[in-house]
C-alpha cells in the first residue's frame, strides 16, 4: 500500500521542518587552531616581552622573572633572560632542538622543552607558541565553558620536541580565542591546567596572560604575562647555536 500525504498533512510537515533548529556545520579544525594561534602570536617575526610570576600553594607571591622572546619562521625562537639571577642566559629553539647558553661559556648545552625556567613555566611554554605547527587537532564537540558555548579540541603531538604529548583545548565558539587547556605528559599524566586571559572579555584580540596550575605535586600557580608584542626581524646568526655562543652580546 502506498502512503500519500494530504495537502494539509504536507503543509504541517513542511511547517514543522522550518521550525526545527538547523544543525550548524562543524567548523574547520585547521582554521580553529590557526585562529587560536593568532591570539597568542599575531605575526611570524615578533619580539615578545614576557613576565613570569610564581605563587605558593597558599597564594602568596614567590618569584618573578623577565624574558625577551624573539620568534621567527621555521619554528625558531630565542629567549633572552633579563632578571639579575639569570642575566646573560639564553635559550634557543630551532625546530625540535633546544640549547641553553650560559654566560662565560662558548659551548651551547642541549636541553629539553620540558626543562623548567621558573615555577611551572618550561622552556617550551615560553619558546613555542604555535599549536598549529606542532599538533594534529580533532574536534571533540561543542560544549559549555562557564556560561558561553565553546569548541573542545583534542591535540596530539606531531613532533618529538614538544612539551606535551596531548593537549585538551577549549576555544571560544565565535572568535576561537583560547579559553583553557589540559596539558598531558608523554605518560598521559595531567601535568598542568592552563587558563588564558584575553585583553577584552567581550571582544578579545590577543591573549595577555597564561595561568598555569600544577597538577602533579605542589599545586603552585605560575602566571606568564605577555607585557608587549612588536614586529621585529633579527639577524639569522641569532638562530645558530654556535654563532650565538660566540657572540653573547648579540651585536
What do the pLDDT scores average to? Answer: 86
The coarse overall form would be globular
Side by side, the strands of the main sheet go 6-5-4-3-2-1-15-14-13-12-11-10-9
CATH architecture verdict: Clam
Low-pLDDT regions: 10-23
User: Which CATH first-tier class would you pick?
Assistant: Mainly Beta
Question: In whole angstroms, how far apart are the ends?
Answer: 89 Å
| Full CATH superfamily name | Lipoprotein localisation LolA/LolB/LppX
Helix content: 10-25%
Keywords: Signal
Pfam families: LolA_like
InterPro entries: TP_0789-like, UCP028205
Structural notes for this entry:
Pfam families: LolA_like. Keywords: Signal. This protein has about 250 residues and is of the alpha+beta class. It is about 15% helix and about 45% strand. It has 5 helices and 15 strands. A hairpin with an 8-residue loop joins strand 10 and strand 11.
Q: What are its keywords?
A:
251 residues, alpha+beta, outer membrane lipoprotein receptor (LolB), chain A, 13-stranded antiparallel beta sheet, two-stranded antiparallel ribbon, 5 helices, 16% helix, 43% strand, globular
Amino acid at each position: 500500500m502506498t502512503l500519500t500525504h494530504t495537502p494539509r498533512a504536507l503543509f504541517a510537515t513542511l511547517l514543522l521542518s522550518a521550525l526545527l533548529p538547523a544543525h550548524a556545520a562543524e567548523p574547520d579544525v585547521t582554521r580553529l587552531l590557526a585562529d587560536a594561534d593568532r591570539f597568542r602570536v599575531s605575526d611570524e617575526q615578533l619580539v615578545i616581552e614576557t613576565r613570569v610570576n610564581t605563587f605558593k600553594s597558599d597564594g602568596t607571591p614567590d618569584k618573578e622573572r623577565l624574558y625577551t622572546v624573539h620568534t621567527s619562521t621555521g619554528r625558531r625562537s630565542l629567549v633572552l633572560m633579563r632578571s639579575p639571577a639569570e642575566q646573560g642566559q639564553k635559550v634557543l629553539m630551532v625546530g625540535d632542538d633546544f640549547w641553553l647558553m650560559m654566560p662565560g661559556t662558548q659551548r651551547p648545552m642541549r636541553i629539553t622543552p620540558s626543562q623548567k625556567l621558573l615555577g611551572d613555566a618550561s622552556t617550551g611554554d615560553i619558546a613555542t607558541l604555535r599549536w598549529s605547527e606542532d599538533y594534529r587537532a580533532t574536534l571533540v564537540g561543542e560544549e559549555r565553558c562557564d556560561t558561553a558555548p565553546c569548541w573542545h579540541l583534542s591535540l596530539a603531538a606531531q613532533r618529538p620536541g614538544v612539551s606535551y604529548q596531548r593537549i585538551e583545548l577549549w576555544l571560544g565558539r565565535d572568535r576561537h580565542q583560547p579559553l583553557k587547556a589540559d596539558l598531558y605528559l608523554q605518560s598521559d599524566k595531567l601535568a598542568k591546567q592552563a587558563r588564558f586571559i584575553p585583553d577584552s572579555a567581550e571582544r578579545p584580540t590577543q591573549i595577555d596572560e597564561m595561568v598555569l596550575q600544577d597538577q602533579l605535586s605542589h599545586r603552585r600557580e605560575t602566571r606568564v604575562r605577555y607585557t608587549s608584542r612588536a614586529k621585529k626581524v633579527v639577524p639569522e646568526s641569532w638562530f645558530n647555536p654556535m654563532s650565538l655562543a660566540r657572540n653573547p652580546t648579540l651585536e
